[in-house]
Every structure is written in structure tokens, then in C-alpha cells.
Amino acid sequence: MQLRDLDALLVSLLSQDHPEIVSAEVINNDHVHSRVRVCFASGAVSSILVRSVEGPKVPAHKGYDIPTEVI
Q: Domain ranges in the chain?
């Protein structure tokens, strides 16, 4: 996933019905997928499965090992 695609996905979620991100965290519970959980002020929670993130200033990383710099 490109960093701009992750940003676009989050913006699309925000523009629907979730005005404020309260937190975002990477959850690796099965080491098969990296799940990014995004919690919104409204109480809504979104989960996004991410293999990798690429873009300016994103450090190299193994698949499913999302750098903390992007969260």
C-alpha cells in the first residue's frame, strides 16, 4: 500500500461520518496480516489490513512489519 493510498483511505473514512481520529495503532495478532486499528471520537473503529507502506520518508521494512513512523 502506498502511503498516499493509506492517507486517501483515512480521509475517505473521515469524510463519511467520523470527524476526529482519537488513536491509531498497529495490531499484529497472527503475524499473517498487519492490522491498523483507527479509533474515532464518535466511538467508531476501523480496521485496515496493510502489508507494507511506501512513500517519502518511510523507512524500509519487512512485509507486515509497519514502521511506527507512519502511524
A: 3-57
Residue 57 to residue 30: CA distance in whole angstroms: 27
Contact 55/4 with Cβ under 8 angstroms? yes
**How many residues in total does the chain contain?**
71
The 10s digit of each residue's pLDDT in 40-55 is 887 888 888 888 888 8
8 A C-beta contact, residue 19 and residue 41:
yes
Residues 46 and 52: their CA atoms lie apart, in Å, by: 18
**pLDDT per residue over 5-26, tens digit each?**
888 887 777 777 656 889 988 8
**37 strand-pairing partners:** 25, 47
Q: Are 46 and 63 in contact (CB under 8 A)?
A: no
